Amino acid sequence: MQLYSYIKGEIENGSIKKGERLPSKKSLSAHLKISTVTVETAYSQLMAEGYISSKPGSGYYAEGFEEEETVENILKNESFCSENEPILYDFRTNRIDTSDFPFSAWAKLSREVLSERSEGLLNACHPQGIMQLRTAIADYLRDFRGMNVSPEQIVIGAGTEYLTGLIIQLLGRDNAYGVENPGYGKVYEIFSANTSRVFPVPMDEKGASAEYIAGFGINVIHVTPSHHFPLGIVMPVSRRQELLKWAYSKDDRYIIEDDYDSEFRYIGRPIPALQSMDKNNRVIYINTFTKTIAPSMRISYMVLPMSLLSKFRSKLGFYSCTVPVFEQLTLARFMEKGHFERHINRMKKIYRSRRDILVKKISEGRLGEIVSISGCDAGMHMLLTVSNGMKQNELVSSAAKNGAKVYSLSEYYSFPVADIPENTVVAGFSGLIGRDLIKGAEALEKAWL
Amino acid sequence: MQLYSYIKGEIENGSIKKGERLPSKKSLSAHLKISTVTVETAYSQLMAEGYISSKPGSGYYAEGFEEEETVENILKNESFCSENEPILYDFRTNRIDTSDFPFSAWAKLSREVLSERSEGLLNACHPQGIMQLRTAIADYLRDFRGMNVSPEQIVIGAGTEYLTGLIIQLLGRDNAYGVENPGYGKVYEIFSANTSRVFPVPMDEKGASAEYIAGFGINVIHVTPSHHFPLGIVMPVSRRQELLKWAYSKDDRYIIEDDYDSEFRYIGRPIPALQSMDKNNRVIYINTFTKTIAPSMRISYMVLPMSLLSKFRSKLGFYSCTVPVFEQLTLARFMEKGHFERHINRMKKIYRSRRDILVKKISEGRLGEIVSISGCDAGMHMLLTVSNGMKQNELVSSAAKNGAKVYSLSEYYSFPVADIPENTVVAGFSGLIGRDLIKGAEALEKAWL
Q: Greater confidence, A313 or B40?
């Protein structure tokens, strides 16, 4: 792993140039006095990740590493709004339908908070957030997620991205962090921006590969057990136990459980959070209100294991809470008065009916014979595997020509791997109303049949 | 510097234990094939910072490095509220008087924003913040700070602490970051939490020592030129030019200008921001609304030089803006309608009169003969140098016994240095009304006379 990191780093910083020949496995193992198997393992990983390539009979060569330095590239980012394509039906995966948000209840509570004009509204709050909100979250987690946590363990922050950065500061930048590959692209980017030791972990049918994690020297793993993004895998209890066992076997191992869309589960009973199965203080639980309330509301929270609490307070307790007290007070009341629960239940019904409409239209309609659907027992998107001879890019471009936008599965791989399904695309259903889902599916029919 | 960092690291991580004897200068220089002067420089710095000590005729020994791991320690942090001392007059330095905040104007604008219920209120905004607020800030900086910046250059974030973390991610953790010593304690903590290469820079009468910065291999320096905290130095133009010249002479050098209380200047004309003197894209300007509006409102902003803008967007553009759109919209209107300007002017008058009351009471009263006042041409605090034979700790404790709380200057040194004035304390005046300032000063009279 040292060798792998070293060569990767040298390629990234340009010390090893594109096209440069690497030493042969034999000469490197002799030079470093390590086994050829070790060198081979490092080279294989670098190949799998696209850092180097091999030419048969000739050796290993560095691939180019291009930083995306242009404003144009970043403007393509989903966070930016402007798009001029004639897309009528965008099956985006991160679309929250805010039209169903109980805005008037929220506004009423906001006005109440403003009119009370309490001292606390202007003064700095506890670094972990106001106690009232942390208590409301602890109650919610107990009632709806079966988690037994104290408000003391909860840290409120301005978004999961911010909190993930805090976790890295807490555990230390020198850990070897594993992230799911494929996965939510930002997770990989956040880790990359904060540590140089982030490693893609391949997925098997149960989720992040425990074998790989253990074998590759990772000591902190970021996972989405409730509903993997984008594969849709719900991690079975057996894999959860494997991961916990892995974490327990060394003192510096932790699991970051990102429970980002656990609220929206359609089939079967919810599986307990990893956090609630953890008896040894090794799971950091993280969740957000961005998906359940509104993307403009930057409120997330994490639940620290008791053992990390004093470390957090001594090492990072100087940080002010990043969420305005006004928002915290409003959200706390929104939860206390049951609005949050009602809203979640309502959105779950809405998203479920959208999911059902799309599933029915595709599986019972003309696409039924060539499309198989997966990954939508929970969450806001599904995978469509299409057997019409087209590959991902064709599937996406032919859909676009017909006014529908679906997404290549390969987009979600931070690192390319050999076994990406060639004919699978990702389609979100949360942001489209029923009529548009049907019309969108009809556009896919035109494109793919 | 390498040697210094290495030994410091070994002591911090416990590889070199407390009491362990270090190699002699001579043997180390022979072993590493470097000059004894180099070793001496490193050892001197480590001594100055308390990592090692010398025993005459015997050599150098590592000092203990204790991590403050207890909850008790962190509860002492200013951010936490509970204090049970019988302190009637707390001359805290970071106290904002929120009772004069035009809350009804703010609440009215908040209600307006809520009632319009615009789409934008629930959807994610541009990663740098909403354009309306960035434009309002650019206008403000032009009109009141003489800065010519484009809204494109502005990044809104949930507090200076968060933005400082972003700057470190942007410039890279491997830079050698210099922070003023003494200085605002959190600055040192933020850098320490995000990079292992943070170095204390001593102050001279003009501010951060340019000679030291250049000589010690630092390449990014964090400064507070408008009004140094806590020494109160306003950096003269000559030093500003020296710093800019230093920055221009190498490609990887940057200045972070923290303009945190530039709004409150009482004597003389404002000195232009370093940012506005910078012709070569080397100054990152950062400021906050925490001190001008309310501590509960986590809104700060930074102005990136044009040259860093595309790097920011490509490297960190994936981060969502951390400030709720609701707060951004309200603040933008608050600024557009002139409320912010009026509020600043009003608070400046209020703080100036509090400053004048305290200065007058001390200098014209019984304390006049033993107390000299400095550092209060701007900002919210002053230095009191007391010639009654007491040292800092006595000054603080005798004041406390009489119901007044002042602060040891040495508290603000992240690293101890030899020349900390022994009889100087820090007194903030922004959080006390006139009557309490007078009673507080009377308590100091009882304590110190």
A: A313
Strand (E) or helix (H) holding A176:
none
Instruction: Return the pLDDT at A56.
Output: 61
Contact yes or no for A323 and B298 at CB 8 A:
yes
Measure the CA–CA gap between A214 and B53, rounded to whole angstroms.
43
Q: What is the DSSP string of B397-435?
A: HHHHHTTEE-EEGGGG-SS--TT--TTEEEEE-TTS-HH
Res. B387: pLDDT tops 60: yes
Whether residue A114 and residue B115 make contact (CB cut-off 8 A), yes or no, is no
Window 194-213 of B, Cβ < 8 Å to A = 194
Helix residue ranges per DSSP H, A117-228: 131-145, 160-171, 185-194, 210-215
**Whether the model pTM is above 0.80:** no
Structure tokens at B58: 């015997």
Residues in chain A with CB shorter than 8 Å from the CB of B69 are 310-311, 314
Query: Tokens representing B117?
Result: 């219920």
**A266 falls in which pLDDT band (50, 70, 90)?**
confident
**Mean of the pLDDT values across residues A67-96?**
55
Whether chain A has a CB inside 8 Å of the CB on B189: the answer is yes
- Name every residue whose Cβ is closer than 8 Å to that of residue A443 and which is 6 or more positions away in sequence: A88, A89, A399, A402, A403, A404
Rounded Cα gap, residues A234 and A222, in angstroms: 15
Chain A residues whose CB is inside 8 A of the B179 CB are: none
Query: Which of B121, B158, B296 minimises the CB distance to A121?
Result: B296
Q: What pLDDT score does B3 carry? A: 81
Predicted confidence at residue B384, as pLDDT, reads 97
- CB contact at 8 A, B53 and B63: yes
Instruction: Give the mean model confidence (pLDDT) for residues B175-200.
Output: 94
- Number of cross-chain residue pairs from A and B with Cβ atoms under 8 Å apart: 182
Q: Assess contact for A264 and A234: CB atoms under 8 A.
A: no
Chain B residues within 8 A of A124 when measuring between CB atoms: 79, 295-296
Peptide bond into B127 cis (omega under 30): no
| Residue of chain A whose Cα is closest to the Cα of B81 | A126
pLDDT tens digits for A376-430? 988 999 999 999 999 999 999 999 999 999 999 999 998 888 888 899 999 999 9
Residue pair B403/B88 in contact (Cβ under 8 Å)? The answer is: yes
Q: Is A324 on the interface with B (CB under 8 A)?
A: yes
Helices B392-401 and B434-448 cross at an angle (nearest 10°) of 120
Report chain A's mean pLDDT, rounded to a whole number: 88
* CB within 8 Å: A158 and B162: yes
Residue A134 backbone dihedrals phi, psi, to 5 degrees: -65, -35
Mean pLDDT of the region A342-358: 93
The pLDDT score that the predictor gives to residue B253 is 97
Place of tokens 């490092």: A42
Measured between CA atoms, the residue of chain B closest to residue A323 is B298
Closest approach of A192 to chain B, Cα-based (Å): 10
Round the average pLDDT of chain B to a whole number and report it: 88
Chain A: nearest CA to B73, how far in angstroms? Answer: 7
- Torsion angle, CA of A254/A260/A264/A267, rounded to 10 degrees? -40
- The residues that bridge with B203 in the sheet, in sequence order, are B208
Residue predicted with more confidence, B405 or B56 = B405
Query: For A201-225, how does the pLDDT look when each residue is reduced to its tens digit (9 = 90+)?
Result: 999 999 999 999 999 899 999 999 9
Establish if A168 touches chain B: CB-CB under 8 angstroms: no
Please name the residues between 122 and 161 in chain B that touch chain A, using a CB distance below 8 Å.
Answer: 122-127, 158-159, 161
B110 contact residues in A (CB cutoff 8 A): 110, 114
Q: What are B130's two structure tokens? A: 């909403």
Task: Tell me which of A1 and A198 has the higher pLDDT.
Answer: A198
Best of A292, A320, A430 to substitute, by most chain B Cβ atoms within 10 angstroms, is A320
Spell out which residues of chain A touch residue B299, defining contact as CB-CB under 8 Å.
324
